[in-house]
Amino acid sequence: MSDPAPSEASNEGGALHSIRSRSETDKAADVAFDKLVTAFRSKVKVKDRSYRLKTYKSCFTGEEAVKALLTLDDCQTVDDALTVGNGLMAHGVFEHVLREHALKNGPLFYRFLNDERGAPARGADGARVSWSDFVTDGTSDVVAGLTGSFPGPDLSSVPATSVHVATAVSPLDEHNVALLNNVHPASWVDPTPASNFTYNLLVLGAGAGGLVTAAGAAGVGAKVALVEAHMLGGDCLNVGCVPSKALIRAARAAADIKDAARLKDMGITIKGEVEIDFGATMTRLRRLRAKISENDSASRFSAQLGCDVYLGYGKFTSPNTLVVNGQTLRFAKAVVATGGYPQLLPISGMKELAAGWGSGDASAPVIATNESIWNLTALPQRLLVIGTGVIGMELAQAMQRLGSSVTMFGRSGKVLPKEDQDLAAIVKEQMIADGVQFRLSVTKYVSVSLTGAKDASGFQEMELVITEMGPDGQEVTSRLPADAILVAAGRQPNVTGFDLGLAGVEVDPRKGLKLNDQLQTSNPNIFGVGDVTGKDQFTHSADAQARMVIRNALFFGKAKFSNLLIPWATFTHPEIAHVGLYAADIKAVGKEYVTYEKSFEHNDRAILEGETEGVVRIIVEKGSDRILGATIVGPDAGDLISEITVAMQAGMGLGSLAGVIHPYPTLAESIARAGDLYNKTKLTNSVRLVFRQLLKVHR
Question: Where are the annotated segments for Disordered (predicted)?
Fold first, then answer.
């Protein structure tokens, strides 16, 4: 092959380098990338083309694109050209006219996108506007106090439409800048559809449920509008599953290293102190969250997945219109996926003290929820956690293991109240062994106030006053000092501020959208998914609901939420996971059942790992092996529960599970051994007698 012609896009490192190094936080790389795009565009002939009696406007062929790319620096082969071309497609420069193919060296048609589905705004230098443009310079303008010294936003220059995001995420280090560039670019140019254009589907809210709905609908050819006021990815990415599991992993590592007796038994001795750098732990959390956020980015959904992305507050104006940033969008169907928010308790002084930290003031006293605790960069020595549900338990254990002294508060005397309490007690006992203290007989949260003291890290000391039942049954008043308070006392569906009434959508402020079993609202053209429905508030539940709604809204489906089998897991140590019905549920409907259990004490892998606390509990319908529900508490319970979920979904009974060959030694063998327990019940005295007679014949 002859040498390619000299490039008109002379950029350092050439086309391949520009594709591989392009970053929206690196202005030089961004400018080099734009030069590459300009050069490529200048060499491709765009015109109307026809195929099978259909005309495709303003397009070019894959073969023409490859020829053009071969004229650029360091594109020496067709493979190089395809690498660069598919990189350009990944960055939203062009796409296949039907969005069905990557770039191929052939007659397929492609078209340039021109940012018509929404894109980050560009500055005077031609580079995309980045959150790094709004980070303050100099030590006098950084976030200080208990977070140390980190970059913060210059709110006077942040676009008004993004100030609420700038105050929610702290600090604005390189990782949070990358996160925000992905999930809420500082300045975004909305699409401008024709005045009479009607979307097949409009999705309000870009959390887990909204994103799956939008991507899935666009993937089957629907014209989709995705509207988000805050951050794409919603709770799970930004303030839920992702950051919490990063924290939990670090806490688990710390606990393993500090378990000197267990390590000594393995022949391992660690000399000296085990030091935990909480600031570094949180830096890792922010870095990994930013990396994962690429999958939920606004640019990916607009340029790669084919959604029209609008960043702003959407409000319904009629049963089939919504206004966002001054534009009225028309839709045939819509999905409300606005999620939920944590609720503060009506404790005297709490709302006033919580306002500062919750709005990004790093010098304020730390009264946090699951949405704001991730802004910590220093470790509170004394952490009080109100609420003993999933969020409270996971974070309390993690923070205790990372060095905080944690006390948990509840009213009911229970932890993880949805779970069987004998199994929840296994988790509680481990947390007590970790050092967590429990006060579960609170009768009233009286007040919270500042004491005026401040520790070396900058935490302002608070005092929480409660009344609780004492050991003698008498109510007593207790005063507890705290450096930080985490409120994990439940979440509310986010149904206000969207003028849902104008769309004919009925809501319950406490329970969420009023829906039928097909997830339709009182407006049959508007559906609901995710936490706003008040149904099983898990990311994987929102995902399943979204897939169901795509079928029901666009393809006349009749799928029912009540038919979904949704497992869940709490990622404490040990983990606890469940699927199906609890014994109490079965008793409530008058059914008879039988429970089979297998303890990890008798599982060889658990013995070898030194983690024998826990059990597999499986409930079957009396008289058959039909599985009605199961709970696992122990190591990797969140993964193990999937085997039972698959069996239930497929109609596979517990007896059949015993016949599935499991690798040895694995924790999952305990599931099969529970199946053996069921099969042994079939060996009645009559069956034994028959077997004995048969064996006599064979002697």
Answer: 1-22
- Nearest 5°: phi and psi at 114? 60, 30
Residues 6+ apart with CB under 8 A from 352: none
8 A C-beta contact, residue 111 and residue 58: yes
Question: Which residues, 6+ apart, have CB-to-CB distance to 3 below 8 Å?
Answer: none
Preceding omega of 665 cis (within 30 degrees of 0): yes
C-alpha–C-alpha distance, residues 56 and 459, integer Å:
63
Q: Give the pLDDT score at 7.
A: 37
Q: What is the CA radius of gyration of the chain?
A: 29
**DSSP class of 459:** P
Predicted local confidence at residue 456, as pLDDT: 86
pTM of the model: 0.90
Write phi, then psi, for 274 (nearest 5 degrees). -90, 115
Strand 198-204 versus strand 314-318 pairing type: unpaired
Q: Residue 9: what pLDDT?
A: 41
Each residue's pLDDT tens digit, 227-237: 999 999 999 99
The confidence score (pLDDT) of residue 15 equals 72
The single-letter DSSP state of residue 319 is T
Which residues, 6+ apart, have CB-to-CB distance to 92 below 8 Å? 113, 115, 119, 299, 302, 303, 304
Nearest to 132 by CA among 185, 80, 192, 79: 185
The reported pLDDT for the residue numbered 8 is 40
What token pair was written down for 388?
């003993």
- Mind listing the domains of the chain with CATH numbers? 14-114 (1.10.10.10), 131-188 (no CATH), 191-232+297-341+492-562 (3.50.50.60), 350-490 (3.50.50.60), 574-685 (3.30.390.30)
SS3 621: strand
Minimal CA–CA distance to 637: which of 578, 566, 581? 578
- Kindly indicate the confidence band of residue 4, based on its pLDDT and cuts at 50, 70 and 90: very low
Tell me how far apart the alpha carbons of residues 373 and 371 are, in angstroms, rounded to a whole number: 6
Cα of first residue to Cα of last residue in the chain, in angstroms, is 81
Strand partners, 451: none
Tokens, residue 146 = 């208990």
Percent of the chain whose predicted confidence (pLDDT) is above 70: 95
Q: Where are the alpha helices (DSSP H) in 266-330?
A: 278-293, 298-299
Query: Minimal CA–CA distance to 646: which of 671, 624, 617, 664?
Result: 671
**Residue for token pair 């979440």:** 491
Measured in residues, the chain has a length of 699
Q: How far apart are CA 564 and CA 552, in angstroms?
A: 14
Estimate to the nearest angstrom the gap between the alpha carbon of 367 and the chain centroid: 23
Q: Report the alpha-carbon distance of residue 578 to residue 109 in Å, rounded.
A: 49
Give the Cα separation of 123 and 112 in Å (integer).
Answer: 22
Range 98-120 burial, b when 16+ CB lie within 10 A, else e: eeeeebbbeebbbbbbebebbbb
Q: Model confidence over 564-613: pLDDT tens digits? A: 999 999 999 999 999 999 999 999 999 999 999 999 999 999 999 999 99
Rounded Cα distance, 545 and 211, in Å = 12
Residue 573: CB atoms within 10 Å:
21
Residue 1: the pLDDT is 35
